[in-house]
Design brief:
By secondary structure, this protein is α/β, with parallel strands linked by helices. It has one domain (6-142, 181-188): Rossmann fold (3-Layer(aba) Sandwich). The chain has helices spanning 13-19, 99-109, 118-123, 157-166, 168-188, and strands spanning 6-10, 24-27, 40-49, 59-66, 72-75, 85-91, 113-115, 127-136. Helix 4 (157-166) packs across helix 5 (168-188). The radius of gyration is 15 Å and the shape is globular.
């Protein structure tokens, strides 16, 4: 994979720390709430599987980004990351953690995984690719991990703890899944 001239756009600070090993980075926040940087962009970070066919830790080197209606926002060649598999990313406007909703979105769009940043980056017209590691699946939900992220890319410890109190087993499993996915991204770097 040739990272020359690319900016690795990450929602969260922990994703950005890994991406630094690949080159220039930017923290864009959840859903690119901090704005879209200039230059050729790579959407880099975690994603949720939309079907049970992608185990936690799988890295997707996307060839397409679609919106929730299935409209193609970006299409291109994979970046050539190894090990990774090609696939389609759904750029959602919210965290999708309900198994039935994931199944519906998979059926409606054909997307393999969902994140909140790739759609916004694709709409900029400067997306060069997406590298996303699966952190959760329809059967391995996010629980309190979903409440542990701030819109600007930081960590909300109190939100995480509140989510943990509500769903301790789900939250612990999700944290392990996120850690495994991050290790997969480290393997690319």
């Amino acid at each position: 994979m040739d990272a020359d001239g690319l900016t690795f756009a990450c929602a969260m600070t922990f994703e950005e720390r890994i991406a630094r090993r690949l080159g220039r980075t930017a923290i864009v926040g959840l859903g690119a709430s901090k704005g879209v940087p200039e230059g050729r962009l790579v959407s880099f970070g975690l994603a949720g599987a939309l079907s049970g066919e992608l185990p936690v830790g799988t890295v997707i080197d996307a060839t397409r980004v679609v919106d929730e209606s299935g409209t193609v926002l970006w299409e291109g060649l994979p970046l050539g990351a190894s090990p990774a598999r090609t696939g389609t990313i759904l750029g959602a406007s919210r965290i999708v953690d309900d198994p039935a909703e994931r199944a519906r979105l998979h059926a409606a769009t054909g997307a393999d995984a969902v994140d909140m940043e790739s759609g916004a980056l694709a709409r900029s017209g400067r997306l060069a690719g997406c590298l996303r590691a699966i952190s959760d699946t329809p059967t391995h939900r996010l629980g309190g991990v979903a409440q542990g992220a701030t819109p600007d890319g930081g960590v909300d410890v109190l939100g995480f703890l509140r989510g943990f109190v509500r769903e301790p087993a789900v939250t612990v499993r999700a944290a392990r899944g996120a850690r495994r996915a991050l290790r997969s991204l480290e393997g690319l770097a």
